[in-house]
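Ligand-bound model needed. thymidine-5'-diphosphate.
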Amino acid sequence: MKFDAIVFDLDGTITRSAPGIMGSAKYALSELGKPIPGESVLLRFVGPPLRDSFRELCGLNEDETEKAVALFRKRHNAEGWKEASVYPGIFELLYSLKKAGCHVALASSKSLALCEKTLEYFGLRRFFDRVAAPVPGGPEISKRELILSALPENAKAPCMVGDRMFDMRGAKEAGVYAVGALYGYGSEEELSQSGADETACDVKALRRALLGDFRMPRGRFITFEGSDGCGKSTQHKLLKQYLESCGVSVVSTREPGGCPISERIRGVLLDVSSMGMTDECEALLFAAARTQHVHDTILPALESGCTVLCDRFVDSSVAYQGAGRGLGDWVKEINARAVKNCLPDLTLVFDISPEEALARRLSQSQADRIELSKGELQRRVYEAFIEMCEGPDERFYRIDAAGSIEQIADSVRQKVMELLTGEAEDKRK
Ligand code: TYD
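Prediction:
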């Protein structure tokens, strides 16, 4: 490890805050009936003090500037801050730094409350040992002082990562190695002239600068299961969006399918012209599609450190072919070979009664061959999933799928973030 303590700036280093800032500036100007400047001018709001921007970029007088600042803050505090997103790969970088035993801290000129709520919202708070930021009404603090208060007294090789000249200068004044994040809002020229010891053009390069060849930890494998019509695909999409906004590298896939060969098998399995397929043929085709999918898509993604989200996996075969079609344990046997020990870290089972699920399905789309199966099959499938949740294997997590989309999305997020931040592991210890 090159460094034992790393201090990050927030805006432009951890989060891409421009969308919320530009949106809030636009809102303030339109409420005041002022012309809205183009994107390139709005982008210049990111960084400098707000008053200067309204005055210099939009030509507002003193009175208008005060009103604009108040309107900006109103919108930004309510929703604008959530329009930010974390740069892709930052989540895994912070996770790796903690695994490597590094002190991780934040030093930002944004208010402490906003820093805390941003880190919390994007699931990053657990990775930070300290957060140094000004409190409203408190004394003015220089970047140098913020950096020093974010570091532990005994840091031997401290480093600061930031995207603007204030960060680089503050680091040098504090006697700390400075890494410029070129993917943020400052230019190469700005960063090297203000004292950057090194620059990183993207998060991958930043990772190399901070961690050398420290191995990327293996990614996590999360599956979505439940009866037809349980709403898992909607939740899969929402979770993917949220995780990406948190800077998690996500690979999203599905079964049957998920790679070209297995998508072709999917066609054979689900097409209504395959009526008459024997149950054994069906089970073997699902397993065949799965083994190719694990080989071509899932394992490579996990090995490169990505989080894999998969709609249905081996548990669907156990429920549909094992319990539903009555093929029993033979389905587990053929699948043991197919998955090659690649089992999910977390399986979310969306629990909704087969009757309610049927009503939802009929109102939504055309049914495929398996969905057209009789009611008893769906009942056996449902019971098999519930049995998995009630069994000893802790990877299964039952989600009540009868609530609103937002409520369900919240429980999904909570459970998944416990896994991805390492909180679940710490709880078990
Ligand atoms: P899916 O595309 O997930 O459909 P939906 O989004 O409507 O739930 O799955 C297609 C069908 O394939 C579904 O009825 C469940 C079935 N299936 C099995 O019977 N066994 C399996 O191993 C898998 C993966 C799916």
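The radius of gyration is 26 Å.
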